[in-house]
Amino acid sequence: MPQYWLMKSEPDVYGWDELVAEGEGTWDGVKNAQASNNMKAMQKSDQVLFYHSRTGLEVVGIMEVSQEHSPDVTTDPERWVVVKVKPVRKLDKPVSLKAMKQNPKLEDLAILRQSRLSVAPVTESEWEAILAMAG
User: Fold this and answer.
1) CA 16 to CA 7: how far, in whole Å?
2) Could you give the C-alpha distances from 64 to 78, 79, 83, 85, 87, in angstroms and in order?
3) What is the pLDDT of residues 66-76, one digit of tens each?
């Protein structure tokens, strides 16, 4: 069974369009212990929501983990990790943070409880609710 996740990136640093252009991206630079542990728990083929943070504040697409964690050589490779992801599809309609906060099915969504967490698990029911909101 695939697991579900949400990963945040500032679109002016690394956005959905850049991932699509690359075809496969390396998710690096994560320097939060909980987020890093979440990345270590990811398995190949897990499904991931791509969330534009700071600018946009919305889920814009679906990615898939294409390579499990390895050391992050851009920071401290003994402490932090990267994963590789591939774009699956852009959402028909982005799902805003405001809309997610208003949906009672998402009241326990990790990023709503810990807004600074950049990599977070998503339950299957939360995943389905977000995709339903996207059309």
Assistant:
1) 11
2) 25, 24, 10, 5, 6
3) 999 999 999 99
